[in-house]
Specification:
The chain has 298 residues and is an alpha/beta fold. 32% of the residues lie in helices and 13% in strands. It has three domains: 40 residues, no CATH class; 135 residues, 3-Layer(aba) Sandwich (Oxidized Rhodanese, domain 1), CATH 3.40.250; 112 residues, Rhodanese-like domain (Oxidized Rhodanese, domain 1, 3-Layer(aba) Sandwich).
Length: 298
């Protein structure tokens, strides 16, 4: 059970707010506010992480490369390089395969109902974001990202270790939340109604950088580079700053994509942090769309 104590604003056009203390057992809080409370606790600070490192119910996962992990990692962290697990098939069978792979990965990590899972990488980056999104998608809400990653951890004078840690596998099946994932067929049918955010670089978006059979972007998509979600120190920007980037109605249906759904996962978290509830990640992203006979814009 998760307990938090802070104040959220649930109407960006007004000054109304709600305290989320002990929200998990408070039946008086409407579902839309429960969702916002859930999404506001997906970032954890260096100090808070340091205070719970010895908690046996905490799983800490280093999502960087093994080379980086072996040079020094946060004490107690296991290594899980999620960048090694691309998935660009969003047919019905493809999504089923992804669900099986994702559940197997999280079982290997040791995810279980009572576990708090914390992912980190170099900064508040796309690798840790992918891990957080995957577990949210599999309906394990007790998952977080270390804000600022190991860079912030080291900057704040926290210790590292070099010894590798072993896994304690579980039997995690997960319950896929289909509202958090999109496939090419749905996007093709909803190009004029969905708000599509391309989280890639401007060069990938305008077609000057080619990373698939075809260049360009999904029709009607707007380009907001995922790196703009972060401050220079690698932590997430404030909600006020992010709101200036994402000037989109809170009730919009939003789909994020990039090349392989890693940068898109970071943008997913940025939008969730702002309180958007109807957000999904296009799992196949440009790695699928740009290699199929689908409409593109340049």
């Amino acid at each position: 059970m998760v307990f938090v104590e802070f104040t959220i604003t649930y109407d960006r056009s007004s000054s109304k707010s709600m305290n989320c203390q002990n929200y998990a057992t408070n039946s008086q809080i409407p579902n839309q506010f429960r969702l916002e409370c859930d999404t506001r606790i997906m970032l954890i600070s260096v100090d808070k992480l340091a205070s719970i490192l010895d908690d046996p119910d905490v799983i800490l996962a280093d999502a960087r490369s093994f080379q980086e992990y072996s040079k020094g990692h946060i004490p107690g962290a296991v290594h899980m390089d999620l960048f090694a697990f691309h998935w660009i098939d969003t047919t019905i069978h493809g999504i089923e395969g992804f669900n099986s792979q994702a559940s197997a990965l999280m079982s290997f990590l040791g995810v279980a109902p009572g576990k708090k899972v914390i992912f980190y990488d170099s900064i508040s980056g796309m690798l840790a974001a992918r891990g957080v999104w995957m577990l949210m998608y599999l309906s394990h809400s007790n998952v977080m990202m270390l804000d600022g990653g190991i860079t912030k951890w080291v900057k704040d004078g926290m210790p590292l270790e070099t010894a590798s840690r072993g896994f304690e596998p579980s039997e995690f099946s997960g319950n896929p939340d289909t509202s958090m994932i999109s496939g090419f067929e749905y996007i093709r049918e909803n190009l004029d109604s969905a708000k599509i955010i391309d989280a890639r670089s401007p060069e990938e978006y305008d077609g000057s950088m080619v990373r698939a059979a075809r260049s360009g972007h999904i029709p009607n998509a707007i380009n907001i580079n995922w790196s703009l979600n972060l401050k220079p120190d690698g932590t997430f920007k404030s909600n006020e700053e992010l709101s200036q980037l994402y000037d989109i109605s809170l009730d919009a249906k939003i789909i994020t994509y990039c090349q392989g759904a890693y940068r898109a996962a970071n943008t997913f978290l940025a939008l969730k942090k702002l309180g958007y509830t109807d957000v999904s990640v296009y799992l196949g992203s440009w790695g699928e769309w740009g290699n199929m006979n689908l409409p593109v814009e340049v």
